[in-house]
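Re-running Outer membrane protein beta-barrel domain-containing protein to confirm reproducibility after the cluster update. Everything else is unchanged from the original entry.
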Amino acid sequence: MKKKIAGSLVCAMLYAAPGFGAEPDAATAAGTPLSSEWQFSATPYFWAAGLSGKVSHRRQFVIDVDADFDKLFDNLDFGAMLIAEARKGRYSIFGDLIYTKIGSQGDTPLGLLATSADVKTSTFAGLIGAGYSVLENSPHQLDVVAGLRVWSVDTDITLKGAHLNGRTRSEGATWVDGLVGVRGNYVLSPKFYLTGWGLVGAGGAEADWDVGLGLGYNISKNVSAAIGYRALGVDYSSGGFKFDAVLQGPMAGVTIRF
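Result of re-run:
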């Protein structure tokens, strides 16, 4: 009988929130024309996502995953995430780098052969993209974007109990997806703004999508903060390794411009 391994693959949860790296500064909010000089920003952020879906190892271990984001800290061993952006006039280049390491325990679908399993998963995820603003001389911002997303997932499952006690199975995959979409900001006041994005694509995965919406606040000319909600889905399978999951939950970040 298949059971849930809570948080065993939350590793993939922290990925590609391009809207959080595109906060407008006070000048943009006031409607100043787009700058002809390069402008740079960096956004450390955190996404407390829940994960639901299916993962498998060489078709031997098919596990239903359903972990709410409120259980995240019971399973997260390490997580680091950062968005960076460079913008000049209507053009922008942005990137998002993530590394996470997850440990969890759960029941297995192996019946009498094993009673439980320890799961350790590490993931590197990176997005590089470029955008073009379709608005000019506007306090708001709307970019058409395209990019590449790299996934690299490694998972170790150690079986516990019964006949397979101590047996370890390792599996991993690395793939690249192409994505297109939009991202933008809507200025509510010199201090507050809405930020959002939507991306969809495929490549190594059969489907890859990412949507989000947030509320931002300009703390000063060079610093702003945003909170929001994001959902990301991916469906990848190759050689018996399967990662078919939807990740969603609240996120928060701080942007520094220079």
